[in-house]
Design brief:
Blueprint lengths: L15 H13 L14 H13 L3 E5 L2 H11 L7 E5 L5 H8 L3 E5 L9 H11 L3 E5 L8 H11 L2 E5 L7 E2 L2 E2 L6 E5 L12 E5 L2 H10 L15 H7 L12 H32 L5 E2 L7 E2 L4 E6 L4 H13 L5 E2 L24 H8 L1 E5 L6 H30 L1
Parallel strand pairs: 2-3, 2-4, 4-5, 5-8
Antiparallel strand pairs: 1-9, 6-7, 6-11, 8-9, 10-12, 12-14, 13-14
Helix pairs in contact: 1-9, 2-9, 3-4, 3-7, 7-8, 9-12, 10-12
This protein binds pyridoxal-5'-phosphate (PLP).
The site of pyridoxal-5'-phosphate has 15 residues, from helix 3 and helix 4.
């Protein structure tokens, strides 16, 4: 049997340029972002300036993690204790976790089989929950129809915070993901689009939101040492009423990230080449649905998803086992038991139980695979072929089993 031998968790090494900068920071001893020599701007501040410029926004804050950035965005948008915050039900656990951490209450919205938020359910839940905020997670890089979404939110007076953990470098109709709402949050954790181990970025054009976020992040009133921040007068208004929730980014991580930002566009192109090869192999297979991508969607194919339809749990487990035999470990969101990162809403027991039949039906057959850039194009063609082979092989078993039952 053909087998794939690569590692699905092996990322690319950190580039020499990043390593060189990191060594300079280590030699300086000034790892803390506010520890500056005369006339120096910190690596953290430079990263913020460069990321804001890349996105075309006014303000940026580098912080401890993507989940922390979401928490801070909600806090800085002045979410009150117990307030309902809408979010799509297909996402990863840091998203409902960040809402909980901000003292708010997640109200989950259904997703479609194209893995984007269901706009009809969103409209219903805006009305029923009276929520004033949507935390939209562009989960696995599937971008909703942002024209329709933004016009619905505007009509209803609901604010938007974007979770762009999987859309850094992505866009809708040519406009960067993360520029459609009040604020956006990015992750620089190892498995995202740029890698500093851990880290997060929060962006906004709202001066007061950013001033609060910076003070929340633990600025010790040294906010004038931020390169992509509002003027001091704005901080004067908020500094004494904003608690310090210590969660800064250090200069070492910022130094590692800056050269990666310059490579982002190229990385995205490389992901999409790999994604296209796997997708090509999976196209046209009966009962295997590839989520639709709209023409305006500038997605980043750093992972691939498909839905197995009209199959029982047992059949899907058999298919997953056949993939694994071939060296292809797929993640499955249908399992009620969270395994690795694949949790679903039923296992977030710290929130109110929610009724989401549409999402549950989608998750039942949802398979997921991250695509590390260490894979060659040929690796991706092979992975696609092996998934197809495993699917065809277990389809036979299913049909045979059904025939026996009927006989
Ligand atoms: C990774 C991730 C986050 C949070 O990022 P961390 O840096 O790990 O805290 C948020 N949302 C989604 C969808 C993610 O995948």
């Amino acid at each position: 049997m053909r087998r794939f031998e690569g590692s699905f968790t092996q990322q690319e090494p950190i580039g020499e340029c990043s390593i060189g900068r990191a060594i300079e920071v280590l030699r300086s001893g000034r790892l803390h972002r506010y520890n500056l020599s005369q006339g120096e701007e910190s690596e953290a501040s430079l990263l913020e300036r460069e990321f804001a410029a890349l996105l075309g926004v006014k303000y940026c804050l580098a912080c401890a993690s993507g989940g922390y950035a979401i928490h801070l965005a909600l806090r800085s948008a002045k979410v009150r204790a117990g307030e309902p915050v809408l979010t799509n039900a297909f996402t990863l656990s840091p998203v409902p976790g960040a809402i909980h951490n901000a003292g708010a209450r997640p109200v989950l919205v259904e997703v479609t089989r194209d893995l984007t938020i269901d706009l009809e359910d969103l409209e219903r839940k805006i009305v029923s929950s009276r929520s004033r905020l949507l935390l939209l997670s562009h989960m696995r890089g599937h971008i909703a129809d942002m024209d329709a979404l933004v016009s619905l939110l505007d009509e209803k007076g609901v604010g938007l915070i974007e979770d762009c953990a999987h859309t850094m470098g992505g866009s809708w109709n040519g406009r960067p993901s993360g520029t459609f709402g009040l604020a956006a949050c990015f992750s620089t954790q190892t498995y995202k689009h740029i890698n500093s181990g851990e880290g997060g970025l929060l962006t906004t054009d709202d001066a007061h939101l950013m001033a609060r976020a910076i003070v929340h992040s633990g600025s010790y009133m040294l906010y004038e040492r931020h390169g992509a921040a509002p003027p001091a007068a704005v901080f004067e208004e908020v500094r004494l009423e904003t608690p310090n929730y210590s969660g800064r980014m250090d200069n070492l991580r910022a130094a590692i990230l800056r050269p990666q930002l310059a490579m982002l566009e190229q990385s995205c192109r490389r992901w999409n080449e790999r994604y296209a090869r796997i997708e090509q192999a999976l196209r046209g297979i009966e009962d295997l649905y590839l989520p639709r991508r709209r023409a305006k969607e500038g997605f980043v194919g750093s992972s691939i998803q498909f839905l197995i339809e009209r199959r029982s749990d047992e059949d899907i487990r058999r298919f997953l086992a056949a993939c694994l035999e071939r060296g292809v470990e797929l993640k499955w969101f249908g399992d009620l038991n969270p395994s690795g990162y694949t949790s679903r809403h039923q296992s977030w027991r710290y929130i109110e139980e929610q009724f989401l039949p549409k999402t549950d039906a989608v998750l039942l057959g949802l398979c997921d695979r991250r695509i590390p850039l260490t894979f060659s194009i040929e690796d991706c063609a092979l992975i696609g072929a092996l998934i197809k082979e495993a699917f065809e092989a277990t389809r036979g078993e299913t049909a045979a089993a059904a025939a026996v039952m009927e006989g």
